[in-house]
Automatic annotation (TrEMBL), chains B, C:
It comes from Desulfomonile tiedjei. This is CoA transferase subunit A. SMART domains: CoA_trans. GO terms for molecular function: CoA-transferase activity. The keyword Transmembrane does not apply. Transmembrane segments: none annotated. Keywords: Transferase.
Length: 266, 323, 323, 266
């Protein structure tokens, strides 16, 4: 992984790419053609858009605010940005959007981020410290708990830091595999659960039986031990392989087509 | 002509004075950076309303301003943020951490369902969203306010689905019936009919759930215009108590097809909100020292307003510098 | 171009063959005299589908034809009528009195709530409608079908509102998730987006609740047309499995902005439906002997079709003789 | 009550009126300006429209199908008639319409008809005979049970016949005052209940304590004993007075403005 140490961000060459570019293209590849993608803002917008422009043209991007399949000629900076209302197939509302999110006949994939994650992919986006007297406050669930509860699957973006990959969440905002095993189904959920965690170091997935997180791929130049060192709980790295870097086409699409202003790429 | 709005048309000052009291439960329409009812939020602050009980889903600028100005005592919410301009609303975060407001966390779908239940006259709604999380395990409001005023007796209830047997658990969410809903619309007809353009968020459910509804709008249009295509209309006149004509009434948030959010103002706000003294200065400069919306718009200035003017082709300001 | 309907565009024959089986649970869109999906109803009869489980709220012509032709075994319904043309649907009444179909009565709001619950992925909906009535006291379906197929384990459940204590009782209605919803729309875009004009009844809830959706339409319009104002659109493409272009596809019921109901045909039907032999003759003449919608429209004739053509000013045929 | 025995229906003079005209104008007078009126078809359309054109211009007529405040230039023959979609303030759907019907801030008044009524104003529009093996079948509740459950009040139209005013309903489709007294509140309803029954003979109302039906008014020329003879249960006629006949203005409005084709007036 090459950091952009050359200064001019706009001069990144094709064999160089930033962590964000790696994360966006990696996550984008997880989108299948035909998926219905519940996008947030930030890097998930990039992932969804690059997927749509390259290998998943029939994937439909929609937003919890109700915007379905917008043209996205400019990148929205919030899910209520008027840019999610332009060129859509339909402008609905939250009720319709969450109905779609949980629709049993759709393969809905939601992108989420959070302040903390645990080994079972449960997420905290509410508080650090005690809920009643928090050390800091985050925005809250928004639609994250709903997506984690109702979508066919979720893909999580995180900065890979020990304080974020924690043994125990300060607050469980969004359900992952809960306490592992079949606990998610026992809690009453009929589908869903985390598919992968995409960080600035690599890709984590979840064991199909224990539902514990394991290291699946590291980015070129990242050592598995870096992941271990930045993870606050024990993580299995025995099956790791190196991730494929972004292709020229992915990078070109990202930089020139999806986010030419580098609003999200930075 | 029956059904006209002459009796309902009023200034923001009158609308707030007549329909909002200290302690009112108010539903804020809009969503983060869009269609926040800023003209009413500023007027509420000017009238020094206190102990408001705010109910919303994902909200941004109006909420943060109301909290920062000390108007809010209780909050039921899913998300307090302004997208890239403030991933967590700044005065909101400070107030929660300082224990200045009581907060009850729900998710967006949960809050939307609660408004929908109120709108439909249903006692509660059932969902699977949130099972196993702290959203359903932890109550935020102190026990002594439970069941008082508009606070439901429980945050929520978990029951067994009677149609499926003991293994199938569901979350029941109590209906919301706020005292007042504040909605900013693009159009109100002279017959009182409301038309929202673009995403409606949960505005319609909020309005339909409320005891009273104040609608501010960009344009008051003739009856013939609004009735030309009733399929596009959003709320009938008999659900609206007050109509306030307020061009740019959502500034600095966006109003689809009229104007974009104002990145310069939102950055100014972010910088001033981060500091207690500067925030007071913001309130003085942008709220207290300005008697009304006209003065506010004069202060923003025509140059900035023209910069965010929406292109009719796409409904936002194409190529606006948002960095 | 992504999201086009070429793979979904098909004939009524193919749509029915692919998506409806003997025993399917089908939701009928429209309401009494409007937007009945007649083109699919006639095709279902032609293909001799049997033991259908029909779910609807207030329905008329398509339902009566399906029942009369012996396609329906089970029915969950609020109202079977055609307004002044048949206050009670004729073959429906005969079949119920003869015990030929199992029927479960709900109210319109109850059925709408059940579709909405299915559409929203909720297990049930709570309402106060029906307390104390035989709608909540008497079950129509035989006990042995309860819990089988798409029949819920109970017609409904009455519980105490957990937020209000024992005195506050509410009715819980089980969600509906039909196998197929049959919707007749005015427009479908080449991108697959559906636009209904006029009243939507519970069509959108029915479509969103179903496993599969067949949309017949008056017009297939270019993507640029349907996306020009997305606020007006009703269903996204990914919820639609089959699109059938079928002008006058709701005849003899009305399709707002395209044509009125056909009083002459409805009177003809009423007279023939009242008699078993004449009804068989109606089926021969108007269904079995006609291979497709083109032949049907030829038989109705251009004179009658022009008589019911809607005025663009009001969406129905002004001054139509409806006595 | 003068029957139209002169033959030419369109030649009715102003001092003559049909039972339907009497019913429509009588019920129309029960609408207050500002009421939100849940109309059916048939005579209730006439009542609502004549009220709106004469004394309640701000009353709003809406339909369970979702049409709100249509212009009603032509009379709809069913609640799903395209004539309820024209010139409306809003075309919604059933969910919105029933939400309005039950909205606690609105004085919603619903017009209903039925096949049978009992002394407490409960209605049957489902079957005659045994439910499982009915002698005849009617259309069913439609929105009637919802209106009777949720509206601020209901006004009922009936033909006054013994077989329709019965001691016990064959099926209770729509709740009136249930078993009288406070039984409606005890069943769980927070408002509503029958206001009046308008028949071809007169107007029945309900005692405020017992909630039993009593004869309030008879039409000119009708004897109270005719009502008793046509009612299948005991009915108090002690407080009866004669109803005011339709005014010239009401009749003119009905005949020339509301239903010139006599689609409903017959």
């Amino acid at each position: 992984m090459l950091k952009d140490s050359t200064g001019g961000k706009r001069e990144l060459r094709m064999n160089q790419y930033s962590p964000r570019e790696m994360m966006a293209t990696t996550a984008g590849r997880m989108i299948n053609n035909g998926d219905v993608v519940f996008a947030g803002t930030g890097i998930s917008m990039l992932a969804a858009t690059v997927a749509k422009r390259i290998h998943a043209p029939d994937a439909v991007v929609f937003f919890e605010t109700g915007g379905i399949d917008p043209s996205l000629e400019e990148l929205p900076l919030a899910v209520a940005d008027p840019r999610v209302m332009a060129g859509t197939s339909m402008n609905a509302g939250l009720i319709e959007a969450f109905s779609i999110l949980g629709h049993r006949r759709l393969r809905t994939v939601a992108f989420l981020g959070a302040a903390q994650i645990d080994r079972f992919g449960n997420l905290n986006s509410t508080v650090l410290g005690d809920y009643k007297k928090p050390r800091t406050r985050f925005p809250g669930s928004g639609g994250a708990c709903d997506a984690a509860s109702l979508a066919w699957g979720i893909i999580i973006f995180m900065q890979h830091e020990k304080r974020r990959f924690v043994e125990k969440l300060d607050y469980l905002t969004s359900p992952g595999w809960l306490s592992g095993g079949d606990s998610r189904a026992k809690a009453g959920f009929v589908r869903g659960g985390p598919i992968a965690v995409v960080t600035n170091l690599g890709i984590m997935r979840f064991d199909h039986v224990s539902r514990a997180m394991y290291l699946s791929e590291v980015y070129p130049g990242v050592l598995p031990q870096e992941v271990v060192a930045n993870t606050g709980f024990e993580i299995d790295i025995s099956g790791v392989r190196e991730a494929d870097p972004p292709t020229d086409r992915e990078l070109l699409t990202l930089r020139e087509d999806v986010d030419p202003q580098r609003l999200i790429l930075g | 002509m029956p059904h006209d709005i002459t009796k309902k048309l009023m200034s923001p000052e009158e609308a707030v004075r007549r329909f909002i009291s200290d302690g009112s439960q108010i539903a804020l329409g809009g969503f983060t950076v869009s269609r926040n009812n800023m003209v009413l939020a500023r007027e509420i602050i000017r009238q020094k309303k206190r102990n408001l009980h705010v109910v919303c889903h994902s909200h941004g600028q109006a909420l943060d301003l109301l909290i920062g100005a000390g108007c809010v005592r209780r909050l039921e919410i899913a998300y307090g943020g302004m997208g890239r301009f403030a991933p967590t609303c700044i005065r909101f975060r400070k107030a929660v951490c300082a224990g200045q407001i009581d907060i009850e966390d729900y998710s967006n779908y949960q809050m939307s369902l609660r408004f929908l239940a109120g709108a439909m006259g249903l006692p509660f709604m059932a969902t699977k969203s949130g099972l196993g999380t702290d959203l359903v395990k932890i109550e935020g409001f102190p026990i002594d306010v439970r069941g008082t005023g508009k606070v439901p007796s429980m945050k929520l209830a978990i029951i067994e689905n009677p149609f499926n047997g003991a293994e199938d658990r569901v979350v029941l969410l109590p209906a919301l019936t706020p005292d007042v809903a504040l909605i900013h619309a693009q159009y109100v007809g002279e017959d009182g009919t409301v038309r929202l353009k673009g995403l409606t968020f949960a505005d319609l459910e909020q309005a339909r759930s409320a005891e009273h509804v104040i609608v501010t709008c960009e344009e008051v249009v003739p009856r013939s215009f609004i009735r030309d295509d009733p399929d596009q209309n959003s709320l009938p006149a008999f659900l609206v108590d007050a109509v306030v004509k307020a061009p740019f009434g959502a500034h600095p948030t966006a109003c689809y097809q009229f104007y974009d959010y104002d990145p310069r103002h939102l950055k100014l706000y972010r910088n001033m909100a981060a500091n207690d003294d500067l925030f007071q200065e913001y309130l003085e400069n942008w709220v207290f020292n300005l008697p009304d919306q006209e003065a506010y718009l004069e202060k923003v200035g025509i140059t900035d307003l023209m910069r965010i003017k929406a292109s009719p082709a796409v409904g936002y300001a194409q190529g606006l510098d948002r960095r």
